[in-house]
Amino acid sequence: MRSANDLLLLGDPLLYQRSIEIMPEELPLIATWVRDLHEVMEDIRRKYSFGRGIAAPQLGIMKRLIYINIDSPKVFINPEIVDYSPGMFEVWDDCMCFPNLLVRVLRHNSIRVRYLDETWQQKEESFEGDLSELFQHEYDHLEGILCTMRAIDSRAFRWRE
Questions:
Q1: Catalytic residues, which ones?
Q2: Which of 58, 85, 86, 114 has the fewest CB atoms within 10 Å distance of its CB?
């Protein structure tokens, strides 16, 4: 069983690497990866009372896979953000890889995402507001970008209360 102890922490070099696409022959591995992501996210929720999504690179799985579970679980394989709104908003962002730190960042109000689902079918979906922010955060992990790198200025950091 995987736990929060399996998360890579801020400063780990793998967190700054771009992940690679999942190939069709890797489809049988996705269920195991998703189970691991789910277990770790549930452990974070128990310990820190937050966690709506997680990206595979946060566990050192350097694949383009995002797992989001708000009302129901959803898997995004090889996602691509295909459109960003011009409008942006500021938000205090958190991350499981440094659970006690919040970072003030700018995120797009809305995005459109193209991805494969667990049956390898191409899908497209739009997200706004909180979901847009969440997806952008997880997508950044696939690109090797942490929210600390998107801080709006040098004072955009605070400890979680």
A1: 138
A2: 86
